[in-house]
Amino acid sequence: MAKRKKNPVNGTMELTKSKVKPQENIHPKALAAFRAGQGWLVTSAEEPLSRNYALDEALQAFERALEFQPDYLEAHLWIARLTHDRQTKRDHLEFILKHDAKHEEAHRMLADLSK
């Protein structure tokens, strides 16, 4: 299902279609941390003055989600999207592909990283 959402990086509205197959049995604390990260992304889009702080908080929330559920692929994907560290980005994308070899966005991001 397509959704409209604001891009946290440039603030533009985009139609997006999730390529991530929803995982079952997500740990409740992992899900809560993930949703907190999503909330920080909204804050970063709505309040440009606190954008860097909000993006850092989002990244930390996604990392907390992985503390509760290390195989939470959507949290890995958001960390790969938000981090500036190329090796961290690569590690999270490779983890996703190890568990879902057909994950289109992870393949695309990894190919972009290799350019």
Tell me about this structure.
The protein has 115 residues and is mainly alpha-helical. The chain has a single domain, classed as Serine Threonine Protein Phosphatase 5, Tetratricopeptide repeat. The protein contains five helices and two strands. Strands 1-2 form a two-stranded antiparallel sheet. Helix 2 (51-68) packs antiparallel against helix 3 (73-82). Mean pLDDT is 86; it is low at 12-18.
Observed structural traits:
115 residues; mainly alpha; Serine Threonine Protein Phosphatase 5, Tetratricopeptide repeat; two-stranded antiparallel sheet; 5 helices; 62% helix; globular
Brief summary of the model shown:
62% of the residues lie in helices and 9% in strands.
Query: So what's the overall shape?
Result: globular
Domain count, please report it. 1
CATH C-level category: Mainly Alpha
Binned, the helix content reads 55-70%
What is the assembly state of the chains in this entry? Answer: single chain
Largest sheet: 2 strands, antiparallel
Poorly predicted tracts of residues: 12-18
At CATH's second level, what is the architecture? Answer: Alpha Horseshoe
Average pLDDT confidence is: 86
The beta-strand count equals 2
- Report the end-to-end length measured between terminal Cα atoms: 31 Å
User: What do we call the CATH homologous superfamily?
Assistant: Tetratricopeptide repeat domain
Report Rg.
14 Å
Structural class: mainly alpha
Q: Classify the beta-strand content into a percent band.
A: 5-15%
Counting DSSP H or I runs of 4 or more residues, the number of helices is 5
Spatial arrangement of strands, main beta sheet: 1-2
CATH fold-level name: Serine Threonine Protein Phosphatase 5, Tetratricopeptide repeat
